[in-house]
Amino acid sequence: MTQHADDIDTGWAVHWTHPGRGEWTADRHGRTVGEVRRDTDGYVATRGRRTVGTYRSLDAALDAVDRRSLMTLQPSRFWTLVLSTINVGIIAAISLVATAILR
Q1: Taking the model in full, what pTM does it have?
Q2: 23-26: which pairs have CB atoms within 8 A and are 24 or more residues apart?
Q3: Which of 10, 89, 96, 102 is the most exposed place for a label (fewest CB within 10 A)?
Q4: Which of 9, 10, 17 shows the shortest CA–CA distance to 65?
């Protein structure tokens, strides 16, 4: 099993557990984000309730669940970025007004 926690920031790191025979669960900060289970056709990777795909090897299935989280922007991170940008703009505007008033 491959763990990519050393390669990326720990905020994005996916930690794998092996709860049962033929089952692997991916979690981030204690919240389950995906799982891989062994099937007759191979390894089935799921993310949430959506099936990512069926893979021949365990490593490919684990990578599919792990890598998908880095390629998609999560809505909470998107809104954090938008609100941070708005706050920086407001602070810059207040600074310009304060500078104009004090001159």
Answers
A1: 0.53
A2: 24/58, 24/62, 26/62, 26/65, 26/66
A3: 102
A4: 17
Q: Are 66 and 80 members of one domain? A: no
Q: Hey, which bits of 40-97 come out as E strands?
A: 42-47, 50-55
Residue 45 structural domain: 1-72
In three-state secondary structure terms, 49 is coil
Residues in the chain: 103
- Reported as a single tens digit per residue, the pLDDT across 56-77 is 998 888 888 887 544 455 567 7
Per-residue DSSP letter, 8 = S
Quote the DSSP letter at residue 56.
S
What phi-psi label fits residue 76: left (phi over 0), alpha (psi between -120 and 50 degrees) or beta?
A: alpha
